[in-house]
Design goal:
By secondary structure, the protein is α/β, with parallel strands linked by helices. The chain has 20 helices and 31 strands. The protein is globular, with a radius of gyration of 29 Å.
C-alpha cells in the first residue's frame, strides 16, 4: 500500500513557548510515528528534541512545512491521558504548554544542536600551517567529517581568527545535535541507601481508628473514580501505616500507586518502610538521583515495570499507567510548591490529576493547610480523623518559657539556653533518653557588624546580611551561596571592633558541648549533611541511640519517628511569627506542632520546652495545646475579613532583573494598566507595585504586584487581560505569574 502524499504531526518542544507546531513526516520515518515519542526537528536556527502530541492534525496549513529529521529508536515517553493532564496544567497556571512540558520531564530528555565548523580541503591546509601566538603548531582533532565544535575552535584560535577564515571560505558552519544513544540498563542504586535490617513485609497492628480509615479509603479504591480524602491525624497517629495498607489494596485491584513526600532524602525512615513492604515493585523519584537515573526510572514507570512510585513534588508528572491511588503525605508542606519554571503546587495537581483520570486521592497531615481543611469542611474532601497516637499515649506536654524573664543577667548571646531547658536536658541524659533541639537558623552567628562605623556585612547579590560560619571561618549567604573569609578588620573603617551576633545551629552545638562534655551531640542541617550519605549516617546513629542530643533546623521535623526522644526544645518559637506574610501564623503553628510531635512516640510521655518572647500570643498558646481546629477558627476570621486564601484568590505578578530602574518601571506600568482594566473586573484588588520583601536575590532586583479577589474567575480574567495585551513581556526583565502563590517574599 502506498503511503499518503502528506503525513503531518504536531510536536511540542520543552521550551517556554506555546505550541504545538506542525511538521511533515518524511516517508522513511512514517512507520516510526507514535504518540508521545521523541523526535528531532528544526526549530528556529537550531535542531531540537520535541515530542509528538498529535497525528495528522486537521486544518489548513499555509506554506511549506519543515520536516522531522529523526525519530530515535526508543519507546514513547508518555501517553494521551498524561498529555491531557499537561494541557490542563498549562491552562490553569496560565503558562505556555512548552514550559509546562519542560517542567514535567527529566532534564536528560532535552536536546539542542550546537554549531560545528567544517573545514574545506583548503581550510585543512591552512590549519596545518597555523601557529599558536606563543609558537608551536595548533593541534586539533577533527571528526571523521573534518569538523569540530565551534566552541572548542574559538577557545583555541579565538573568535576574530575564526571570523576571518569564514570570510575566506575556508570553513562552513553547520548545526549538529548530539546523537541520542540507545539507553543502557543501568544499576539503580537508590534503594541500596536504606538499611536492610528492617523486617521484610512487617506490618503494624492497626488501631480501631486506623481500621476505619483503611475501610473508608479502601471502599473508594474498590469503587473506582475520583474520590478525594483528608486523613487528619495527630502526630504519631500512624498515617504511614494507613497509606501502606491502602497501597496494598490498590495493587490487589490491579492498579498502581503514587506516594508524594516532601523530600525523600529527609524521610529515610518512611522510605525504608515502603521499600520493606514493596521491594523491587517500587521506584524512588527525586532530586537526589542523576538525570540518567531519572530517565531510566521514567522509562521503567512508563513500561509498567513498577507498582509503586515514591517521589517528591516532580513525581506528580511521572507517567504511571493504570494509576489507582495518589497519596500526598504532609500535604501542608511548602516544599510541594515549585517556584521556578511553571510555578505549580503538587498537592493541588494531585487532586487535578485524580479528577481528570478518575483516581482516589488521599491528603494526609496533622496540621492541614487552610485550603485543604476548608475543602474538607465544605464536603469537597472526605475527612477521616486519627485523633489518638498509635501507641495510645498522650500528646506531649508543652511547657512555655518566657525568654524575656529567664536571662537573669546572663550573657545575652547565651540566653537561648534557658534554665528550664538545661534542667530538662540533664534529666533526659540521666534517664538515657534522647533530646532534639530545634532552631531554624544555620551557621554560628546570624550577622556581623562593625562597632566603630556600624557597617553590616551584607551579600553583594542579595538583600540579606551574611551568616558567620565559625568552623569554616567565613561569611556566607544562604540564598545565593556567596561566601568570603571572615575579615579581621572592617572593610570601611579598618577597625578591629567587629561584633558577631545572633544564634545559629552551630553556636547551639558549640555551647551544649561545653555544658555537657559527656554527651554525644550532633548537628542536623544543610551544612552538616552536604556530603553523600552524611544524612543517612546521622539518622542511623540517632536511631541506634549513639547520639544523645541532636540540634537541627526544619529538616528535623519531616517524617522522623524515633521512640527514644523524650525531650524537644524549641529555642525561638516565635521567630517566624512576624514575617511579612499573611500565612506567617499558619506556618508557625504547623512548624511548632510538627516539631513537638517528634517526642513521646513510645510509652514514655514526651516533654516540649517551647521558648518564646511572648507566651501569651494566641498562636503560641494554641500550638502548646495542640489545638489545630481552635487555631483554624481564630485565624479564619482574619483571613475571611481580609479576603485572603482560602476565602480569596491570589495571583502574584513578579518582575525581576539586573537593572533596578527597568524592573521598577515595568512593575509600575503593569500595575497602572491593571488599574485601568478594573472597570471590566471591578471586584479585583490590586496591591502594589512594591519591592518584594526580599528585594534583591541572586543579583536580581525584584518587584511584585498582587491581584486579589473573592472570585477566582475574576482574578484569572484580570491576569489573562494582562497577558493578551503583552504586558508580561519586557526585554531584560523576567515577568512571572504565580497562581495561588505560597511564598510572597
Amino acid at each position: 500500500m502506498n503511503p499518503p502524499e502528506s503525513f503531518m504531526v504536531n510536536v511540542c518542544f520543552p521550551l517556554p513557548v506555546d505550541g504545538p507546531y506542525t511538521y511533515e513526516v518524511p516517508i522513511q520515518l512514517r512507520n516510526e510515528v507514535c504518540f508521545g515519542r521523541r523526535v528531532l526537528a528544526p526549530f528556529g536556527k537550531k535542531i531540537r528534541a520535541g515530542f509528538i502530541v498529535g497525528l495528522n492534525p486537521e486544518g489548513h496549513i499555509d506554506g511549506a512545512l519543515k520536516e522531522i529529521l529523526e525519530i530515535p529508536q526508543e519507546p514513547q515517553c508518555f501517553d494521551q491521558p498524561w498529555w491531557n493532564f499537561i494541557k490542563w496544567v498549562s491552562n490553569y497556571y496560565m503558562s505556555p504548554t512548552g514550559l509546562v512540558l519542560k517542567t514535567a520531564i527529566p532534564v536528560g530528555f532535552e536536546r539542542r544542536s550546537e554549531p560545528w565548523v567544517k573545514f574545506t580541503p583548503e581550510g585543512k591546509a591552512w590549519l596545518g600551517d597555523l601557529s599558536l601566538p606563543e609558537g608551536g603548531p595548533v593541534e586539533l582533532k577533527l571528526s571523521k567529517h573534518d569538523s569540530i565544535s565551534r566552541r572548542r575552535l574559538v577557545s583555541i584560535i579565538g573568535k576574530k581568527q575564526l571570523d576571518a577564515v569564514i570570510r575566506l571560505g575556508l570553513v562552513t558552519i553547520e548545526e549538529h545535535v548530539a546523537r541520542i544513544r540507545p539507553e543502557k540498563s543501568e544499576d539503580f542504586r537508590v534503594l541500596e541507601d536504606f538499611d536492610a535490617e528492617i523486617e521484610r513485609g512487617l506490618a503494624l497492628k492497626l488501631t480501631p481508628d486506623q481500621d476505619r480509615a483503611c475501610a473508608v479509603i479502601g471502599e473508594s479504591i474498590l469503587n473506582g473514580g475520583f474520590a478525594p480524602h483528608l486523613l487528619f491525624g495527630v502526630t504519631g497517629s500512624g498515617k504511614t501505616e494507613v497509606y501502606l495498607k491502602n497501597i496494598q489494596e490498590t495493587l490487589k485491584q490491579g492498579k498502581r500507586a503514587l506516594m508524594l513526600v516532601p523530600e525523600i532524602a529527609l524521610t529515610p525512615q518512611s522510605a525504608r518502610r515502603i521499600v520493606s513492604r514493596f521491594g523491587h515493585n517500587m521506584s524512588l523519584f527525586h532530586s537526589g538521583i542523576t538525570n540518567a537515573q531519572k530517565i531510566a526510572e521514567w522509562r521503567r514507570i512508563m513500561r509498567g515495570d513498577t507498582k509503586v512510585v515514591v517521589a517528591t513534588r516532580s513525581g506528580i508528572f511521572t507517567p504511571i499507567p493504570d494509576l489507582g491511588l495518589i497519596i500526598v503525605d504532609e500535604e501542608h508542606d511548602s516544599s510541594y510548591k515549585q517556584d521556578e519554571g511553571c510555578p505549580y503546587n503538587a498537592r493541588d495537581l494531585a487532586l487535578a490529576r485524580g479528577k481528570l483520570q478518575g483516581i482516589c486521592v488521599v491528603l494526609g497531615s496533622a496540621t492541614p493547610s487552610f485550603e485543604t481543611f476548608v475543602n474538607a469542611t465544605n464536603g469537597k474532601l472526605k475527612r477521616i480523623d486519627l485523633p489518638t497516637r498509635h501507641h495510645g499515649g498522650d500528646l506531649p506536654f508543652v511547657q512555655l518559657v518566657n525568654l524575656k524573664e529567664d536571662d537573669q543577667g546572663r550573657n545575652a548571646s547565651k540566653c537561648f539556653l534557658t534554665q528550664p531547658l538545661l534542667e530538662a536536658v540533664k534529666v533526659s541524659l540521666r534517664k538515657g533518653s534522647q533530646t532534639v533541639l530545634f532552631l531554624n537558623r544555620r551557621g554560628f552567628d546570624t550577622f556581623a557588624q562593625c562597632r566603630e562605623c556600624g557597617h553590616i556585612f551584607r551579600c553583594p547579590n542579595c538583600d540579606v546580611s551574611l551568616i558567620h560560619h565559625k568552623s569554616a571561618g567565613d561569611l556566607r549567604c544562604h540564598l545565593c551561596g556567596f561566601s568570603q573569609a571572615a575579615p579581621p578588620l572592617c572593610p570601611k573603617c579598618s577597625s578591629s571592633k567587629l561584633y558577631f551576633a545572633g544564634v545559629g545551629s552551630q553556636k547551639v552545638q558549640d555551647e551544649l558541648t561545653k555544658l555537657f562534655p559527656e554527651a554525644t551531640i550532633e548537628r542536623f542541617d544543610r551544612d552538616s549533611t552536604r556530603k553523600k550519605n552524611e544524612l543517612i549516617e546521622i539518622l542511623t546513629r540517632f536511631r541506634n541511640r549513639e547520639i544523645d542530643i541532636l540540634v537541627g533546623t526544619q529538616m528535623i521535623v519531616k517524617g522522623h519517628d524515633f521512640p527514644g526522644i523524650s525531650l524537644v526544645g524549641i529555642l525561638f518559637g516565635d521567630a517566624s511569627l512576624n514575617f511579612p506574610d499573611f500565612r506567617a501564623a499558619e506556618k508557625t503553628f504547623q512548624l511548632l506542632t510538627q516539631v513537638a510531635g517528634r517526642t513521646g512516640r513510645d510509652t514514655e510521655p514526651g516533654l516540649v520546652i517551647l521558648q518564646t518572647f511572648d507566651t501569651e500570643h494566641e498562636v503560641i498558646r494554641l500550638a502548646a495545646k495542640h489545638a489545630y481546629e481552635e487555631f483554624f477558627q481564630m485565624e479564619s476570621e482574619l483571613r475571611r475579613e481580609l479576603c485572603y486564601p482560602p476565602y480569596g484568590h491570589l495571583i502574584l505578578v513578579k518582575a525581576q532583573g539586573t537593572n533596578e530602574n527597568r524592573v521598577q518601571d515595568k512593575a509600575l506600568k503593569i500595575a497602572r494598566e491593571a488599574r485601568s482594566l478594573k472597570s471590566e473586573v471591578p471586584n479585583v484588588m490590586i496591591l502594589g507595585p512594591a519591592p518584594c520583601p526580599r528585594s534583591k536575590m541572586v543579583g536580581k532586583f525584584r518587584w511584585r504586584i498582587i491581584l486579589k479577589s473573592p472570585d477566582r474567575s475574576a482574578v484569572r480574567k484580570m491576569a489573562g487581560m494582562l497577558i493578551d495585551q503583552g504586558l508580561l513581556r519586557e526585554p531584560g526583565v523576567r515577568i512571572t505569574l504565580d497562581i495561588d502563590p505560597i511564598d510572597l517574599m
